[in-house]
Design a protein that fits this description.
heterodimer, A: alpha+beta, five-stranded antiparallel beta sheet, 4 helices, B: alpha+beta, two-stranded antiparallel ribbon, 15 helices
Chain lengths: ~130, ~550
């Protein structure tokens, strides 16, 4: 088999294999080494001061959970919370750090989402006095 | 970085809070794909079709393992790094499916141009797999990246999947119309299986994940149903292997394959089941068993046919041995009979000749013609007996050749001269021509050589009612060969006669119209003798009535 015939026969192997390796290597570098991507998670939200997302375990919503969403760079989160970056155990992750320009908090927008909960200050006072 | 709302898996994949269908859809499909892929590859590693099926199974398995990991693992960095595989694997599956079906349909590798098209389609996906076009972030709360998938990238590999489906359908339909029934069934299995698999796989993975992204579905568990398409495709492959011996997999291997698939499906009952998965498991097992039974019956039929053929072959072998014995006995009988005939015939010929010559006194005029006929007929009979004896000697391997150097040209000329009187008597003109660049010496048995030339010229005399016979002797110094062409203007031969003219008892179909005394052995004997001395005889004719040319070829002694 001549070189030309050989190259034509295994053309896809010789071209796709390097491209696949490149794709795999680049993904590994980006996500596992540089942590160059965004992460988002949910943090507890004060429904009396903000329009919060509402999550209910069941239909009656006995124990409602109010939350907002935080989005920031994965590398920033690691620098705040350490290598494990378990946001449930990292107090600093519950708010955006003042110097972190990649961080943003998203609250519930009632015009888009049905499950928003925002308690008016007058109502809040009633609730506090009742309790 | 971990998904903080989910429990950590044991052994990488196993968590309790997961849809039951996940393991049932992913594990069997992966195991079956890997099993069939490796099985086919190891059966014939150099076959392109086998290699492609293996790569297709491997790409599918990469997708299912990635999917299983995405469902169960909580390491966000790892999952984000793996996420590009959800675009790369379906694209590879699509391209490999087209490649596999095209090679299957045309039974050869695809053209270089199509390979370039494949590369052009895949390159953007591979180059942008790690970029924000594909994935820009990860949601730790839901432990997935659906919110961060690029719609353009996702649409591209999904469209690629649909291109593959249409490409396979069109190529298969075009080929299907031109094929016989057996090939059509194979096309239905291969193309139908791959199209069903691609349709279920590509449509569910895209539609379901898109619906999750826009919030219409809570999670992507519906995509699991798409994986059953692979089971269907692999079953089609298994049918092709067993029923049509596709992929060059052996019969025993096919039975092992069916057995293994049944065990694999049955093993799913060891998992705990919800009513839905239990029903699915039962349906899958019943289908596998039904198809397996049909296939095993087919295998049994093949085994029976094989046994019958073997039995027939054994009987044929016995009959052949018996025929050989009978043939030897026949040759011995012909030899003995010929010898018995030759002795009295010599006396008949001798006395007839003496009577005609007047050795016993003058014979009445009325007796001359009958005596001449006796002499002539006994000569023909002697020649025929000589032919029978020669055939008998050749077939029993008892023909002896006494090789010496002699002038071939002179011998040809002598034989021609000897037969000229006979030619004149038949009203024919017999020419002798010579075009030699050598001395014309050969190393052969002089008696046998003369007999061959005699046979060939006699043959020309017998089958030329009128016209000329030319004996041309020529040589080729470079090839170290000498040739004698006997060219006549006789009855000629058609192609069918030409192909068989050197067989025993073979005569031209129109031979009886000019000569009824030929035995059909002269050319057979001449050819066998010439070959035994390193030469050969060839025949040429432009057709019935257009004359013939016989050429004796002998090696020159130089």
């Amino acid at each position: 088999m001549t070189m030309s015939v050989h190259l034509k026969k295994y053309f896809l192997l010789y071209t796709l294999l390097p491209l696949l390796t490149l794709a795999g290597g680049a993904s590994y570098l980006r996500f596992m080494i540089s942590y160059d991507y965004l992460v988002s998670y949910e943090v507890a939200c004060d429904e009396f001061s903000q329009s919060c997302f509402l999550y209910c375990e069941d239909e009656e919503c006995v124990e409602p959970f109010y939350y907002s969403k935080i989005e920031l760079d994965a590398s920033s989160l690691r620098s705040i919370c350490g290598v494990e970056a378990d946001v449930s155990k990292c107090e600093a992750a519950s708010t955006c750090q003042p110097n972190d320009i990649s961080c943003s908090v998203t609250y519930c927008d009632a015009t888009i989402d049905d499950n928003c909960e925002f308690v008016q200050p007058t109502k809040k006072a009633t609730i506090i006095s009742d309790s | 970085m971990i998904c903080y709302l989910f429990e950590e898996p044991t052994y990488f994949f196993f968590v309790s809070d997961i849809p039951e269908l996940l393991y049932f859809s992913h594990i069997p499909a992966t195991v079956v794909a890997i099993f069939v892929g490796f099985f086919v590859l190891l059966s014939n590693p150099t076959n392109l079709l086998n290699q492609l099926l293996f790569l297709l199974s491997l790409s599918f398995s990469v997708w299912t393992i990635s999917s299983l990991t995405a469902w169960t693992n909580i390491n966000a960095d790892l999952l984000a790094a793996m996420w590009p595989l959800f675009g790369i694997s379906p694209a590879l599956i699509s391209i490999l499916s087209i490649y596999l079906v095209l090679v299957f349909l045309h039974e050869k590798d695809i053209s270089f141009r199509i390979k370039l098209v494949f590369l052009a389609l895949l390159t953007p996906l591979l180059l942008f797999a790690h970029t924000n076009l594909n994935i820009s972030g990860f949601n730790l709360a839901t432990c997935d990246a659906f919110d961060y998938e690029g719609l353009l990238y996702k649409s591209y590999y999904t469209i690629l999947g649909f291109i593959a489906i249409f490409w396979i359908l069109i190529a298969s339909l075009l080929k299907y119309r031109l094929c016989d029934k057996a090939k059509r069934v194979k096309i239905l299995l291969m193309s139908g299986g791959s199209v069903f698999f691609l349709t279920s796989f590509i449509s569910t993975t895209f539609i379901v994940t898109y619906l999750v992204k826009i919030g219409l579905l809570p999670d992507s568990r519906l995509e699991m149903y798409g994986l059953f398409g692979m089971m269907f495709f692999m079953t089609a492959i298994a049918v092709m292997i067993v029923k049509f011996k596709a992929f060059n997999v052996g019969l025993l291997a096919s039975q092992v394959l069916i057995f293994s698939l049944t065990i694999l499906v049955a093993s799913q009952f060891t998992y705990s089941s919800t009513p839905t998965t239990l029903v699915l498991k039962i349906i899958t097992l019943v289908l596998t068993l039904a198809i397996g039974m049909v296939l095993i019956r087919s295998v049994k039929n093949q085994v029976n046919q094989k046994n019958e053929i073997q039995k027939l072959a054994e009987n044929l072998e016995k009959a052949n041995v018996r025929l050989k014995v009978l043939d030897t006995q026949k040759s011995e009988f012909v030899s003995i009979a010929s010898h018995q005939l030759r002795s009295p015939l010599t006396a008949i010929r001798g006395y007839a000749s003496l009577l005609l010559e007047g050795s016993f006194g003058e014979i009445p005029q009325k007796a001359v013609e009958p005596l001449s006929r006796i002499d002539e007929s006994s000569k023909l009979m002697a020649l025929a007996i000589e032919d029978y004896l020669n055939v008998s000697r050749i077939e029993s391997g008892n023909m002896k050749y006494n090789l010496t150097d002699f002038n071939f040209s002179n011998e040809v000329e002598h034989v021609t001269d000897d037969l000229r009187a006979d030619a004149v008597k038949r009203g024919l003109v017999l020419y002798f021509k010579k075009s030699l660049h050598s001395q014309g010496v050969v190393n052969a048995d002089i008696g046998k050589t003369v007999q061959i030339i005699h046979n060939l010229i006699q043959n020309a005399l017998k089958y030329t009612p009128n016209g000329t016979i030319t004996v041309l002797i020529r040589d080729d110094i470079n090839k170290k060969k000498i040739f004698v062409d006997i060219i006549d203007t006789g009855i000629g031969m058609d192609d069918e006669t030409l192909n068989n003219i050197f067989q025993k008892f073979e005569r031209a179909r129109n031979a009886n119209s000019v000569n009824t005394s030929g035995t059909g052995l002269g050319l057979f004997v001449a050819d066998k003798m010439a070959k035994a001395m390193g030469g050969g005889v060839t025949a040429h004719s432009d057709g019935d009535g257009k004359g013939s040319r016989f050429t004796l070829e002998m090696p020159l002694a130089m």
